[in-house]
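Thread: Newbie trying to understand structure tokens

Hi all, I'm a second-year student working on a class project, and my supervisor (Dr. K.) asked me to get a predicted structure for one chain before our next meeting. I've only ever worked with sequences, so writing a 3D structure as a token string is new to me. If someone could post the tokens and maybe explain what I'm looking at, I'd be very grateful. Here's the chain:
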Amino acid sequence: MRVGRSSTASLLLFAGFANGIACGSDHTGHDASALERSIATSIGERLGVPVVARCMGLVACVTLLPDGDRIPIITWPGKNGAWEWRVEGLLVASDVLERYLREVVREMGAPQDVKCSPKLRRIAPNDRVDCWLANGGKAFVTVRADGSTSVEVEPDKVAADARSEVVTPARDEQMTKSSRALEDEDDDGEGDEPAIDAGAVESAP
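---
Reply by user tm_fold:
Sure, no problem. This is what the structure looks like when written as tokens:
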């Protein structure tokens, strides 16, 4: 297991401006504004797939990913009449994270492939990203607001699965009931050994 810290600002660079980008139709045939085209082009090139950006006016924009996920975009007027934008929250690109984690496990003496999905995810600061090691373990990456990370690698599959389990209120109640049931079984078992009649015990000659 390893805990470390690394600057991963490259995971979070999704921002731009619409100056100099002409209006025109996007790949869906929508008559896209310069702002929509700027957003769609920047994020689409990073992902390697076409995405769609839609803006309601010039203040509320959203990017539609191929898997149906929606990424809110914050916009504001910039210099020289250009509109600038950035993703709301943090965006983690899995390919960058995978490359870093492959280097981590290699340095640990256990080189193997690492997979993180989806390809792009939006998270809040201090959220944790779980990734899978080819040999069965997992890596857990916490991303801070400044792009730095803390990394924990658990190579053992059983321990990794236990570490990654999300304890919902329902799951917590289930575990509590199971624990109480085991305690009740232990209590029921006490005093079950047969009583010894002191009068029936003969002294050894």
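A couple of things are worth pointing out once you decode it. Confidence is low (pLDDT under 50) at residues 19-24, 193-205. The chain is about 30% helix and 30% strand. Feel free to ask follow-ups in this thread.
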